[in-house]
């Protein structure tokens, strides 16, 4: 394990593992671990042993900046997607060849994520076809986009039935293309087969 509570000091590598409410986590094809350090408005990249490699992001609205980054996912192509919650958008980043810099490449708006409650912490996943799936916790739904931000579909509604979600939390896509969602409001896991 690694990390401790706090805010990193610029230029001080010893404080690079200081977190403030980290949420999302992803592992790239090289085994590097990307952590959404939500309160510090950044994504931090470590190697598999916890050694600091780099970070990207800061507070703000410009490309490459965040306001409550929660979910982070890595596509098969290596593109990194971040759920930039309070800016109500998804941002994508392309890593440099050596993995020490992440270039902001695309961003698109999300018609959701309106609340700033502790429950409204959306997570994100990317399928083998590079489609991006996000949860909208307080919207009780999942939203799917193409890799370039084109809306594909949404599903879910409030409730406890088989087509309903009490609180959409985590999301992932398996090798067969099934979408799995944790329903924190109903204490269950849901599996969806896409058309």
Strand tally:
17
Tell me about the biggest sheet? 4 strands, antiparallel
Strand neighbour order, sheet with most strands:
3-4-5-6
Shape: globular
The total count of helices amounts to 0
Mean pLDDT: 95
Determine the fraction of residues in helical runs and give it as a percent range.
under 10%
Please mark out the parts with pLDDT under 50 across 5 or more consecutive residues, or reply none. none
Which sequence of SSEs, written as H and E, runs from N to C?
EEEEEEEEEEEEEEEEE
Strand content: 35-45%
The N- and C-terminal alpha carbons lie at a distance of 40 Å
Q: Find the structural class using helix and strand composition.
A: mainly beta
Computed Rg: 16 Å
What is the secondary structure topology, with strand pairs?
Blueprint: E1 4-5, E2 18-19, E3 22-27, E4 33-37, E5 42-46, E6 52-56, E7 69-74, E8 80-84, E9 89-95, E10 102-109, E11 124-126, E12 132-136, E13 141-145, E14 151-155, E15 168-173, E16 179-183, E17 188-192
């Amino acid at each position: 394990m690694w990390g401790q509570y706090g805010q990193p000091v610029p230029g001080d590598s010893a404080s690079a593992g200081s977190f403030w409410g980290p949420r999302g986590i992803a592992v790239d094809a090289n085994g590097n671990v990307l952590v959404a350090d939500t309160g510090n408005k950044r994504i931090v990249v470590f190697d598999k042993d916890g050694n600091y490699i780099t970070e990207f992001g800061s507070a703000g609205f410009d490309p490459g900046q965040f306001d409550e980054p929660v979910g982070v996912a890595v596509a098969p192509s290596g593109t990194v997607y971040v759920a930039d919650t309070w800016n109500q958008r998804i941002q994508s980043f392309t890593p440099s060849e050596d993995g020490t810099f992440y270039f902001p490449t695309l961003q698109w708006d999300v018609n959701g994520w309106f609340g700033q409650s502790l429950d409204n912490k959306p997570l994100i996943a990317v399928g083998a076809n590079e489609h991006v799936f996000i949860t909208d916790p307080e919207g009780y739904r999942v939203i799917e986009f193409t890799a370039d931000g084109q809306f594909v579909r949404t599903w879910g509604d409030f409730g406890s039935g088989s087509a309903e979600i009490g609180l959409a939390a985590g999301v992932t896509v398996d090798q067969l293309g099934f979408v799995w969602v944790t329903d924190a409001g109903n204490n269950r896991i849901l599996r969806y087969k896409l058309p």
